[in-house]
Amino acid sequence: MTTRQHICPNAIAAGRITVEVEGVLDPVTFDHLSDALTALWEALRVLPLRSVEANAYELLLTRPDRVEIVAGFLEPDGSCELPFGMNGHRHRVRIRLAEPEAARCPALRGTC
């Protein structure tokens, strides 16, 4: 029987995070998820997003529990992509562990 691997929540909290806003912000790596999320919001808030998308990103990236929420998105495989539209084109926000292999543990979710 093979053991399923996932990303440890503790490793997400302590690991380096790379963020990118497709077509806007080249990949940048931060030492902490909270810093990465702050930088994402600073990049996104000045873009001509639809109000519903701007409000959703503001809610996600500025709330007090943003680190825990986004860490949950990263747990399965160490990355997540979130879409948005701008000037008639679709773009993606990418958030990923800079070193996902170092964060993998052979356990079921929540037991490492």
Note the topology.
Layout: E1 6-7, H1 9-14, E2 17-21, E3 25-30, H2 33-44, H3 51-62, H4 66-74, E4 79-86, E5 89-97, H5 100-103, E6 104-105
Antiparallel strand pairs: 1-6, 2-3, 2-5, 4-5
Helix pairs in contact: 2-3
Structure explained in plain terms:
The protein has five helices and six strands. The mean pLDDT is 85. Helix 2 runs antiparallel to helix 3 (51-62). It is globular, with a radius of gyration of 15 Å. A hairpin with a 3-residue loop joins strand 2 (17-21) and strand 3 (25-30). The protein has one domain (6-98). The protein is α+β, with helices and mostly antiparallel strands and 112 residues long. The relative contact order is 0.28.
Uncertain runs are none
Number of helices: 5
- Tell the overall outline: globular
- Domains (count): 1
Tags for this model:
single chain; 112 residues; alpha+beta; four-stranded antiparallel sheet; two-stranded antiparallel sheet; 5 helices
Quick synopsis:
With 112 residues, this protein is an alpha+beta fold. The protein has helices at 9-14, 33-44, 51-62, 66-74, 100-103, and strands at residues 6-7, 17-21, 25-30, 79-86, 89-97, 104-105. The protein has one domain.
